RNA sequence: UCCUCGAUAGCUCAGCGGUAGAGCAUCCGGCUGUUAACCGGAGGGUCGUAGGUUCGAAUCCUACUCGGGGAGCCA
């Protein structure tokens, strides 16, 4: 008898009507009465469960009826097509073989659990509806990102996880040690906080490149949006200006949304119903509308004239606070918004100075509910200007010798951005805590599992 | 790191000075079409830890630990 996955059964239910099928899966729930019962099975291949009807003709009827949740069974039976019932089809069991017993203290019950509790059993939570949906979407979104860049000729570069450059300017680093006093690499080494500088080198050879890999920040952040280990996508484009970069960023976000809506409709409908009401309408709106663009200076004016009492002051030269970012994208523009041309003093040394001498060609993409999803800039390609900025910001140009050589040997304008993959997932799924979109999250004080 | 809220049964919570409760889960029984099935019964707790106030503390006070939310840092 041919064995099918649950996904295959759902895909071909009408064609398989009245045929003999076999499926091996875990028991999600059992309901029984005196002479018959129902099993709901899931084998991980599909979001929905397959319903199995079994009756007292089975020699092991009472054993099956008492199966603890998450036991493993192989069912052989006839597929009954039931398009008018709550389930599209069911399997009338001729035989239920018990492959492996679970036990009655299985921590996942047939009820809603809090996300906090599920975090404490991170090894089991992928068996729940919510996390099954989250991590399938995570997989699809990762593929969609590769697809987007590959189709546009970007070269995927694996930038190093271990780095000895001491001040990439993107936060606290984890120091690496072998446990002895020797410096394995001859000098202090750390886990990377960004692949950007390395990606720039490759963009000045291949033109368009992107990285997609893990990133580490040793910051004592305790929020729903920060983790010590997360994944980041960093495209870098030669011969490109800030405006070119923003177009790519917008197209990429839309592509990923489109892809997951098309390839995970059951999961996305589940999020819309149980995680964030209105999610599908929100994403549809994003795909169909143009992202807003506003200069930092104009954004400051909008905030100054806003009829809202902000906790933090607004004035030109200060960085935008969370409440300001939220006001801009949620109240003023009601969609994702690129804020561009920030004051040079609140941005990194490598960002390209604008002609006004006060602002740099940088942009953050702010989205409702998440805050900063993307941070990017045109890079300073002019060797002397770059050196000048490094000195002004207290960096030693000698430590960036190879980075400066990129400018010396055929300088050209180029631009890139960093996208926090988990933040994108939060935006796609409506999940509100970054710890719930990473399989085994690492945050301050937490690296279990 | 700061602010704030919280910690009571396996899970989600109520009780807020006077002998510890509910729903779900578990176990037992019933039920011929269920959909987080339903109905009946049972078992299950040194009320986060340590100290204090009080005749008496889950309840009030202090410290600590852990967790949620917000802020900063950022992606």
What's the CATH architecture name of the largest domain? 2-Layer Sandwich
Q: Beta-strand percentage?
A: 15-25%
Category from helices, strands and their pairing = alpha+beta
Shape: elongated
Number of helices: 13
Output the helix-strand order: HEEEHEEHHEEEEHEEHHHEHHEEEHHEH
Within CATH, the superfamily of the largest domain carries the name Bira Bifunctional Protein, Domain 2
The CATH class assignment of the largest domain is Alpha Beta
Distance between the termini: 39 Å
Number of strands: 16
Q: How does the major sheet shape up?
A: 8 strands, mixed
**Order of strands across the main sheet:** 6-10-11-16-15-14-13-12
Mean pLDDT: 93
Q: How many separate domains make up the residues?
A: 2
Radius of gyration: 26 Å
Residues in helix, %: 25-40%
Named CATH topology of the largest domain: BirA Bifunctional Protein, domain 2
Uncertain runs with pLDDT below 50, 5 residues or more? none
How would you describe this structure to a colleague?
By secondary structure, the chain is of the alpha+beta class. It has two domains: 3-100, Beta Barrel (OB fold (Dihydrolipoamide Acetyltransferase, E2P)); 125-436, Bira Bifunctional Protein, Domain 2 (BirA Bifunctional Protein, domain 2, 2-Layer Sandwich). It is 31% helix and 25% strand. It has an eight-stranded mixed β-sheet with strand order 6-10-11-16-15-14-13-12. It has a five-stranded mixed barrel with strand order 1-2-3-5-4. A three-stranded antiparallel β-sheet has the order 7-9-8, with no helix packed on it. Helix 4 packs across helix 7 and helix 6 packs across helix 8. The longest helix has 23 residues, at 129-151. It is elongated and about 85 Å long. The structure holds one RNA strand of 75 nucleotides. Residues 135-439 form the Aminoacyl-transfer RNA synthetases class-II family profile domain. Its main location: cytoplasm. It is found in: Cytoplasm. Homodimer.
């Amino acid at each position: 008898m041919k064995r099918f996955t649950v996904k295959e059964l759902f895909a071909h239910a009408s064609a398989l009507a009245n045929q003999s099928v076999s499926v091996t899966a875990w028991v999600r729930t059992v309901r029984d009465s005196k002479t018959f019962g129902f099993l709901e099975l899931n084998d991980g291949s599909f979001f929905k469960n397959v319903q199995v009807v079994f009756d007292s003709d089975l020699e092991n009827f009472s054993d099956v009826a008492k199966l603890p949740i998450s036991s493993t069974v192989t069912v052989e039976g006839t597929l009954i097509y039931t398009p008018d019932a709550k389930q599209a089809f069911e399997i009338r069991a001729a035989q239920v073989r018990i492959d492996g017993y679970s036990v009655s203290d299985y921590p996942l019950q047939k009820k809603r659990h809090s996300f906090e509790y599920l975090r404490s059993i991170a090894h089991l939570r992928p068996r729940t509806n919510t996390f099954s949906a989250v991590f399938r979407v995570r997989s699809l979104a990762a593929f969609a990102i590769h697809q987007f860049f590959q189709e546009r000729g970007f070269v995927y570069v694996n930038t190093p996880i271990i780095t000895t450059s001491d001040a990439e300017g993107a936060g606290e680093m984890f120091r690496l040690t072998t446990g002895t006093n020797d410096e394995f690499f001859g000098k202090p080494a750390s886990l990377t906080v960004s692949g950007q500088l390395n990606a720039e080198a490759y963009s000045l050879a291949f033109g368009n490149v992107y990285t997609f890999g893990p990133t580490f920040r040793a910051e004592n952040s305790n929020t729903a949006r920060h983790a010590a280990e997360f994944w980041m996508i960093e495209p870098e484009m030669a011969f490109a200006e800030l405006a070119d970069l923003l177009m790519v960023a917008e197209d990429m976000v839309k592509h990923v949304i489109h892809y997951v809506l098309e390839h995970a409709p059951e999961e996305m409908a589940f999020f819309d119903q149980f995680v964030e009401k209105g999610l599908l309408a929100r994403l549809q709106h994003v795909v169909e509308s143009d992202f807003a663009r506003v200069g930092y200076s104009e954004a400051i004016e909008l905030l100054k004239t806003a009829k809202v009492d902000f906790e933090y002051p607004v004035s030109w030269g200060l960085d935008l606070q969370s409440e300001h970012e939220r006001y801009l994208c949620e109240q003023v523009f009601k969609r994702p918004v690129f804020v561009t041309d920030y004051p040079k003093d609140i941005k990194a040394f490598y960002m390209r100075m604008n002609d006004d001498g006060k602002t740099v060609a940088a942009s953050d993409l702010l989205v409702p509910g998440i805050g900063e999803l993307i941070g990017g800039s045109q890079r300073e390609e002019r060797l002397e200007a770059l050196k000048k900025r490094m000195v002004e910001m207290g960096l030693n140009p000698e430590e960036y010798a190879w980075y400066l050589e990129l400018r010396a040997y055929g300088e050209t304008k180029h631009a890139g951005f960093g996208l926090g993959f988990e933040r994108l997932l939060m935006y796609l799924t409506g999940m509100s805590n970054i710890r719930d979109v990473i399989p085994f999250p690492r945050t301050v004080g937490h690296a279990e599992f």
